[in-house]
Amino acid sequence: MLYPLYEAGHLMLAPMRLAAEATKLACENPLNPLAYVPQGRIVAAGCEMFERATRVYDKPAFGLGVPERIVWERPFCRVVAFGEPSAALEAKPKVLIVAPMSGHYATLLRGTVEAFLPSHQVFITDWSDARQVPVASGRFGLDEYIDTCIALFEALGPDLHVTAVCQPSVPVLAAIARMEAEDHPLVPRSAVLMGGPVDTRRSPTAVNRLAQEKGLTWFERHCIHTVPLGYPGAGRAVYPGFLQLAGFMGMNLDRHRDAHQAMFHHLVQGDGDSAARHRAFYDEYLAVMDLTAEFYLDTIERIFVSHALPRGLLRHHGETVDLGAIRRCHLMAVEGEKDDITGIGQTKAALDLAVNLPETAKAYHLQPGAGHYGIFNGSRFRQEIVPLMQAFMEESLRPAAPRQAPVVPAPETDPILLRDTPPVQPPRVARSIRLPDTLAPPPDLPARQDGIPQRIAL
């Protein structure tokens, strides 16, 4: 009943939103004397804050100033390519950015896409809002997610580079491992995993501990609801986006409260630039999508509770996913020093588990001072991480030296939980990558002081 109640609440507030918008326009009208006194600006600011707090936010646009094309499409995913087809574009290396399917839209990675536009053909997964997908389109769980990754690698290959941001690190790794096990000719050249929960037993965060403490049954009982009538996906069991957003907001409630108070003062004071930055950030942050129940519960159970991948127990349509099968695809792990979503060492675990991949085909970077959002967006990402990724992708085009396969230990019978141990602190860079002078990052820029939260939970 929660979903229908949520929808009914928005419908009940619709007349009040319209009244607030009309009042705001009246108070800002140059012909109204109230527009020139503080009391009028206070009323207009209050009306805007109310309207924004009760609005249902639509999916944002990328808005990067370049043409966008749909080059691949299925019911639950489509791939967006950037730029007009041309010989110059096709001469650039291809990079597929696998966006997280975790509540926010792919436009959250607008900055990630923009950073690679000058140097690569850029593709990004644009996942569908589950409430917009009819029940007749079937289920979409973790196995289907891995199937989608394999299909994308085949469609966009050869010589494809893949970047998985946060949650897709596990299905991308699994897809690569399955392709490697079958000696598939279109295995990606490289994969960069950014803040992904490969082994959540390492440096567990509050998110990881919650999954361990509550267990699958609790999430199934409290987080899964049915899409109501009025949507194409009516009757589909989903994890609603508004619940995911409530969790995001609750993790940093003080920051969001302070940011909205600052927004109100900016509006009253007539600081249009600061208010515009706030609107742009929260137009993206507050736009959320539903996830299929089977994908959400699969992720909780197999990644966060049973730790199936690092224990060698993850199966894809009955076949074991063995990261030891990875021998050709170069792997890079990127983590943030202050990441409170994916702890230090969780992504680096992928390099340790790929035991048959030569060390020369692996790279690791721990970004000082960066939180979860900062490892794929912002000034640190553009200036420090992107040059490393570009150099790594270029290096992956050269064949790695073969090495003798080590003995692979048997899968663990029970998970090893490290919740009560101090966080793992690996070295900042496990293997240095020498950058060409043309890729050397510029000096640091001062941090933003606009009061807008700089982390988005994925």
Provide a descriptive summary of the structure in words.
- The chain has 458 residues and is α/β, with parallel strands linked by helices.
- Helices cover 39% and strands 13% of the residues.
- The chain is built from 13 helices and 13 strands.
- It has helices spanning 2-28, 38-53, 87-90, 110-116, 142-156, 169-181, 206-223, 241-251, 253-269, 272-285, 293-305, 349-353, 379-396; strands spanning 68-74, 77-82, 94-98, 121-127, 160-165, 190-194, 225-226, 237-239, 291-292, 315-316, 319-320, 330-336, 362-367.
- The protein has an 8-stranded mixed beta sheet, with helices on both faces. It has a 3-stranded antiparallel beta sheet with strand order 7-8-9. It has a two-stranded antiparallel sheet with strand order 10-11.
- Helix 2 (38-53) packs antiparallel against helix 9 and helix 5 crosses helix 6 (169-181).
- The radius of gyration is 23 Å and the shape is globular.
- The model is unreliable at 414-458 (pLDDT under 50).
List the helices and strands and how they pair.
Blueprint (H helix, E strand, L loop, with lengths): L1 H27 L9 H16 L14 E7 L2 E6 L4 H4 L3 E5 L11 H7 L4 E7 L14 H15 L3 E6 L3 H13 L8 E5 L11 H18 L1 E2 L10 E3 L1 H11 L1 H17 L2 H14 L5 E2 H13 L9 E2 L2 E2 L9 E7 L12 H5 L8 E6 L11 H18 L62
Parallel strand pairs: 3-4, 3-5, 5-6, 6-12, 12-13
Antiparallel strand pairs: 1-2, 2-4, 7-8, 8-9, 10-11
Helix pairs in contact: 1-2, 2-9, 5-6, 7-11, 9-10
